[in-house]
């Protein structure tokens, strides 16, 4: 068949549409056109590429067009849809359905597509990856959510500087039996740890000159990073490494801006003789840490191997009390990752080193701890569910709003002051998850259905408050997973189809005790805060990449094996 090469061509710029030939004359072939409705035409002479011409990146592939001898067989999209509005609506409906179907393939809740910039820029903020490690030999339950409190008897306190040497004076410890949390008044380092029997995940940092390695518990519920310190130390655990020993030049003055940030919510006191910035932190598990602020060199290695050295402020902690003395047996301190100005990510962001984004991925496999990162280079461009952070000038934790919670298909009460919604805190420093009193009671009641399957509650097991003995030997969670249901936390809307959902499978709330029982890793949180806050601890955060984006004020999550971080630059559908 002869084709007219001089026939004007449509200029096409966008989605692939396939037009089949008429059934009575299939010899005309089919036409594959890229997505744009246009009637603009260009003479062939204008489509010739000039040497410096930049062509669109969209490629159009088409079979030979119909012969000019049969103009009645020509096809126009805009004409077709304008004459057939129902078909246009049908086309749009099918396209929307296809998009939703595609989204569901990559996330159980929502797939976010965002722009990515692949251009290397030496001046752009960097990202750092930290490995996470298992903490062996520490089986204590941890609940951090630290807050700064007033230091008692400041004038006679603790560490004084005399010719560069440190000496300790008598400390009047603050005992807060009625302490309430949250009241109104990219270096590549892995993460190691587990929920049981170790109780937490930790990483390491290189600090000082010469640099020394320190193991730190990662804690998104703590503001200040601190290390056990020989100032000298009045109450320290035998950690993994020798105590940090400061000099006079390392001590932060009381008038420093970071000191003012640490003490901003304390009662105003005048201490003319103070030569350092004193602080005390209390945690929700009633443990505490007392110390002074110090400044030293932090050594970070970027993914491409370059080294960044910068001064950071941290706590020189010389007096630890409570459960901290047990959990510090294999670590040296705590890595504060909250959104407070004194936290490590906020300090790095204020210097332009990173964008203020924190992420962690806690592996479910006990042989692999996972990783955490600072900066936004390792935030996936797809497969993440995002919810807004709740803002509060007094609360630096990462929290958002929960609208519904289900165990299987059964709805549980939120048990909050506002029955329609509750707050949820994401806390990597807590070993287990905490529900409000009413929600916890209803969950335990719902779980009692396993007794019909032969499970017997074993009150003699001291591991956790609720443990079951199975009618068969249990080696791993997988042996009992099928007898329990998934918990679903719903955010944004009570309408299932448009809400964001955080799924907690049985392995996200059960542990196997040393006695071979299945124990519930969700606890009654009525004594944590005011009883109306849910806390998602490590047990429920495992197997998820969780991102705290302080730049855009949102929290995101997506399923992951947590084996190795990747830089996702496109959807898998488009990857070659």
UniProtKB/TrEMBL annotation:
Q: PROSITE patterns of this UniProt entry?
A: PEPTIDASE_A1 (PS51767)
Q: Which GO terms describe its biological process?
A: proteolysis
* Hydrolase as UniProt keyword: yes
Entry-linked InterPro entries: Aspartic_peptidase_A1 (IPR001461), PEPTIDASE_A1 (IPR033121), Peptidase_aspartic_dom_sf (IPR021109), TAXi_C (IPR032799), TAXi_N (IPR032861)
* Keyword Isomerase on entry: no
**Which Gene3D superfamilies does the entry mention?**
Acid Proteases
Give the protein name, as stated in the record. Answer: Peptidase A1 domain-containing protein
Q: What is the lineage of its organism?
A: Eukaryota, Viridiplantae, Streptophyta, Embryophyta, Tracheophyta
